[in-house]
């Protein structure tokens, strides 16, 4: 029963239950379904203990992944919730730039080096979590 529900939601949503966006084809949608199958098969092949794979957990996880994707991508409420979460994260990590001036000088910060900006955000987040 779980396999049928998973196959229904994974193949039904991109291949027929929803309207296509402009410029998109069913082939584009089939590529994503094929990619999901290839990844799962690759993980199965990479496993040392094929019989110990908890398939019920895998099926439920993939099912909930698709349900959350449907909620976020197809409903306005889901999109607004995740946009709000992204805005919170952006605002929070944006406070790392002033904190970076504690470690580096203003000239180094003004150069916008990837390492400096990324390191300052990581240090800021770790310091916040450790409090």
TrEMBL record:
Keywords: Membrane, Transmembrane, Transmembrane helix. The chain crosses the membrane at residues 30-46, 53-73, 112-129. The keyword Membrane applies. This is Concentrative nucleoside transporter N-terminal domain-containing protein. Residues 34-105 form the Concentrative nucleoside transporter N-terminal domain. GO terms for cellular component: plasma membrane. GO terms for molecular function: nucleoside transmembrane transporter activity; symporter activity. It comes from the Eukaryota. It comes from Hydnum rufescens UP504. InterPro entries: C_nuclsd_transpt (IPR008276), CNT_N_dom (IPR002668). It holds the Pfam family Nucleos_tra2_N.
């Amino acid at each position: 029963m779980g396999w049928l529900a998973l196959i229904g939601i994974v193949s039904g949503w991109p291949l027929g239950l929803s309207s296509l966006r402009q410029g998109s084809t069913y082939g584009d949608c089939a590529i994503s379904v094929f990619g999901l199958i290839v990844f799962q098969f690759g993980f199965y092949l990479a496993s040392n203990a094929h019989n110990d794979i908890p398939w019920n957990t895998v099926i439920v996880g993939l099912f909930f992944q698709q349900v959350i994707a449907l909620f976020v991508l197809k409903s306005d409420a889901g999109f607004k919730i995740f946009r709000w979460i992204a805005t919170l994260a952006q605002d929070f990590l944006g406070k790392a730039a002033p904190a970076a001036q504690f470690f580096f000088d203003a000239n180094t910060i003004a150069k916008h080096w990837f390492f400096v900006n990324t390191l300052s955000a990581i240090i800021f987040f770790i310091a916040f979590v450790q409090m």
